[in-house]
Amino acid sequence: MDFWIEILGGIAACLTTAAFLPQVIKTIKTRQTRDISLVMFSMLTTGIVLWLIYGSLIGNWPLIVSNTITLLSASIILGHKLRYG
């Protein structure tokens, strides 16, 4: 049973992490962040950090891997928002 729960978590992690990639690519290419909310992305990035800490504390690899990648993606977008916003 635990195996299938981990697989489910892995699939969910892959999908939610991959969902960021089109926005990251678009943001890097266009440097357009006018329509992205600074408050929302700041809160989202903080939440991702907290999920990463939580995943690390409980040793859950889907949370650790997905939130590490998502944190990188969100940080790129947030950085562009702060720089070009």
Would you write up a description of this structure?
- The chain is mainly alpha-helical.
- The protein has one domain: Monooxygenase (Up-down Bundle), CATH 1.20.1280.
- The chain has helices at 2-18, 21-30, 38-58, 61-84.
- α1 packs parallel to α4 and α3 runs antiparallel to α4.
- The chain is elongated, with a radius of gyration of 14 Å.
- The mean pLDDT is 91.
Q: Major β-sheet, in short?
A: none
Tell me the radius of gyration.
14 Å
CATH class placement: Mainly Alpha
Mean pLDDT: 91
Q: What's the quaternary structure here?
A: single chain
| Portion of residues within helices | over 70%
Coarse morphology: elongated
Number of domains: 1
What's the total number of strands? 0
Give the ordered list of helices and strands.
HHHH
Low-pLDDT regions: none
CATH topology annotation: Monooxygenase
- The chain-level structural class is mainly alpha
As a percent range, the share of strand residues is: under 5%
* N- to C-terminal distance: 47 Å
Short description:
α1 runs parallel beside α4.
SSE blueprint and pairings:
Layout: H1 2-18, H2 21-30, H3 38-58, H4 61-84
Helix pairs in contact: 1-4, 2-4, 3-4
Salient structural properties:
single chain, 85 residues, mainly alpha, Monooxygenase, 85% helix, 0% strand
